[in-house]
Design goal:
By secondary structure, this protein is α+β, with helices and mostly antiparallel strands. Helices cover 17% and strands 48% of the residues. It folds into 2 domains: 28 residues; 111 residues, Sandwich (Immunoglobulin-like), CATH 2.60.40. The protein is built from 3 helices and 10 strands. The strands form 3 sheets. Strands 7-4-3-9 form a 4-stranded mixed beta sheet. Strands 6-5-8-10 form a 4-stranded mixed beta sheet. The longest helix has 16 residues.
Length: 159
């Protein structure tokens, strides 16, 4: 058992060797805990990147080619998104629920779907409103947070 007392250069600051050792042990233990555990428990999951890659009019519909980049994540049995097409005046026009799964682990895939009843020239932007189903690597609640959007088409795509 240590009982020596050390006096530091600042007046009134005295610590025992025992309290110094305890402080050092706590600091060492805290530095050994991964940052992800300190920030809330779970490690941050890999992002799911949705890219509106191409938009073309097909009859009276706007046909969307969606690139689903899951190159850093685990597999999904189902990944269903709720999308809205807004016209060029910013008014919501069409809503579709699109099943983008299954999505293999560490794989990029392409899905094609239509916004029926609206041509691409009349679509001002597409909104990812929600993730309706997310069966696989994460809980549905975290899938929306993990999803990143971008567009290579002339139509903006955002969350």
């Amino acid at each position: 058992m240590l009982s020596e007392t050390f006096t530091f250069s600042r007046p009134g600051l005295r610590h025992t060797a025992r309290s110094l050792a305890l402080t050092a042990a706590v600091a060492l233990a805290a530095s050994a805990v991964p940052a992800s555990a300190q920030e809330g428990g779970a490690e941050k999951a890999a992002p799911i990147k949705l890219q509106l890659n191409k938009a073309e009019t097909a009859g009276d519909a706007c046909r969307i080619t969606m690139l689903v980049d899951n190159s850093r994540g685990g597999a999904f049995k189902s990944y269903k998104v709720d999308l809205f097409a807004f016209d060029t005046d910013g008014v919501a026009q069409k809503r579709v629920a699109v099943e983008l799964g299954p999505i293999p682990a560490r794989k990029t895939t392409i899905k094609i779907f239509d916004f029926a009843g609206i041509t691409c020239q009349k679509v001002g932007r597409v909104l990812l409103n929600d993730v309706l189903a997310c069966e696989g690597e994460g809980a549905r609640d975290t899938c929306l947070e993990r999803t990143e959007t971008e567009s290579k088409a002339t139509i903006p795509f955002d969350r």
